[in-house]
Write a structure and sequence with these properties.
317 residues, alpha/beta, two-stranded antiparallel sheet, 14 helices
Length: 317
């Protein structure tokens, strides 16, 4: 096992975050990073957004584990978009041997009806599939060295992962209760780690801290806080004077008229105020007791080169 795997010791990495923080990009980058050195990882999505396909610029993912990337050293990333209807059909066939009868139920809309009226059932089917992939072995060897789940956002993550409480509302016995208990046991073990993606902005940071508190109360292991799109400080002084700005403009051969200097002074003041807020948010995140990793802002957007850059930053952290 490579050194980077020891830094990320869990086998199931659940990645959550407030919408808009880039959690799908971070999940993909983590899957790429953990595949380095000849490892095989599985990147899973469960929200039906086809975010992985968009990120890797491929066709929509079917309900099948497909290789979407190879990594230096012989590693590979496979991807799976879990469809709750397909997962329920698989479940009915596995536990009740319905097979064709299950597919017939789908034709009349019963499958969609079941997963709609019982969201707890939907979530246990989704997490159950993730558990199966995480624990799957072939000829005595694990099929995947790591599984990375692009999970629902922070506002829903506790309910999504707390499968036993949700399924207790549905059934007191039978295969689904057994399956949910197995999932719950995995999610509360050292095999699992939930990482929370945020930006250095007030709302995402607050949702991050709320999610960590919720997951801790549920006894689900929290891993790292990943600050995405962090920008280096452009100004380090606590205050920038107009005299300094005028001198800098002159040295650069730029206009030093009062309007230009005054405009830059206002921008510098606003920037330093924002920088102060970001430092305060960094402190809040650090006080949570979880390791904080910062990923760089990618001016070119999250293309393949950008994903590789994020992957390298993650496995070095």
């Amino acid at each position: 096992m490579g050194e980077h795997v020891n830094k990320w010791p869990a086998r199931l990495h659940v990645v959550t975050g407030k919408g808009g923080t880039g959690k799908t990009s971070v999940a993909a980058a983590l899957a790429l990073g953990l595949a380095a050195g000849g490892h095989r990882t599985l990147l899973v999505e469960v929200e039906g957004r086809q975010g992985i396909a968009q990120l890797f610029e491929t066709e929509q993912l079917p309900y099948k584990e497909l290789r979407i990337a190879t990594v230096a050293g012989g590693g590979e990333v496979r991807a799976l978009a879990v469809d709750p209807e397909e997962a329920l059909l698989e479940y009915l066939d596995l536990f009740y041997h319905l097979g064709a009868a299950g597919r017939a139920l789908r034709k009349v809309g019963a499958i969609d009806f079941a997963t709609t009226i019982a969201p707890g059932l939907r979530d246990v089917l989704l997490t159950g599939k993730v558990k199966e992939a995480t624990t799957r072995s072939h000829n005595g060897k694990r099929v995947y060295d790591a599984v990375v789940l692009d999970a629902p956002p922070t506002g829903r993550i506790g309910r999504f992962l707390n499968v036993t409480a949700e399924t207790a509302k549905l059934t007191k016995m039978g295969p689904i209760k057994t399956q949910s208990e197995g999932v719950a046991s995995l999610l509360r073990s050292p095999i699992t780690s939930v990482h929370v993606v945020t930006l250095l902005e007030e709302m995402p940071v607050q949702e991050t801290l709320d999610a960590i508190a919720e997951l801790t109360a549920l006894r689900i292991p929290v891993g790292r806080i990943i600050v995405n799109a962090a920008k280096p400080a452009l100004l380090t002084a606590g205050k920038v004077t107009k005299a300094e700005l005028k001198r800098g403009l002159a040295e650069a051969g730029l206009p030093t008229d009062p309007a230009t200097v005054a405009g830059l002074a206002t921008e510098a003041k606003d920037y330093l105020t924002r920088q102060g807020i970001e430092e305060s948010l960094r402190t809040e995140l650090g006080e949570s007791g979880n390791q904080v990793i910062e990923l760089p802002f990618l001016p070119q957007g999250v293309d393949q080169a950008g994903l590789d850059e994020l992957a390298a930053a993650l496995v070095k952290a």
